[in-house]
Amino acid sequence: MATYYAVKIGKKTGVFNSWDETKALVAGYPNAKYKKFDSKAEAETYLSEDTTTGVMYQGLETFDAEELVIFVDGSFDAKRQQYGYAFVVVQNGKVLKQKFGGAANPKYFSSGQVAGETTAVLQALSWLSYHKYTHATIVYDYQGLEKWITGEWKAKQMVGLDYKSLFQSYADSGIKIHFQKIKSHSQNEFNDLADSLAKRGAVTMKVVK
């Protein structure tokens, strides 16, 4: 008897007839939602149900309403030699938390804005850990944030090496992160908010919670 797997929330959605393929799409994905059926018609019906439970964000896929989606960004002020960072936590289409600030660690100056990008992710992970969240999606526009973690890029400068090491410590504590890239200036209100807050952070040394 044929078996069908309907993936409603995962790296890719749809109906699949292989568990191995389905597992690759849902394993480790925050709040993955899928179900097994004996007929393709039943699987397709399942996918069409409860469409209102998903939340769409401009330029991104549909997320489960309860999923934490974290928009991160960084900035750099060359005159002040200071980088800014920001993260915005969104759940069910509403801002749950936002935080931004500035820092001026000399060993990261050569990396400019990237130092702010990595700091934003690490600050977000710290927040997740403090509030005992174990899953989230991080939305970024600088691809090194994901590629350093997956190993597609080899971290060579201190900013990347420190970022990868600290990220791994949070992963080892049980926090699972799904990354999703978004284009800069995609007109996503939450991404734009993170961008504006990071720029404010680059001209202030205090942390605004």
Provide a compact summary of the structure.
33% of the residues lie in helices and 30% in strands. It is of the alpha+beta class.
Key attributes of the depicted protein:
Nucleotidyltransferase, domain 5; RNase_H1_N_sf; hydrolase; 30% strand; 10 strands; alpha+beta; 209 residues; 6 helices; 3-stranded antiparallel sheet; Ribonuclease HI, Chain A; 5-stranded mixed sheet; 2 domains
In words, what does this structure look like?
With 209 residues, the protein is of the alpha+beta class. It folds into 2 domains: 4-48, Ribonuclease HI, Chain A (3-Layer(aba) Sandwich); 55-202, Ribonuclease H-like superfamily/Ribonuclease H (Nucleotidyltransferase, domain 5), CATH 3.30.420. It contains 6 helices and 10 strands. The protein has helices spanning 19-26, 40-48, 113-130, 144-150, 158-172, 189-201; strands at 4-9, 14-16, 33-37, 54-56, 62-64, 68-77, 82-91, 94-103, 135-140, 176-181. The strands form 3 sheets. A 5-stranded mixed sheet has the order 8-7-6-9-10. Helix 3 runs parallel beside helix 5. It comes from Listeria booriae. It catalyses: Endonucleolytic cleavage to 5'-phosphomonoester.
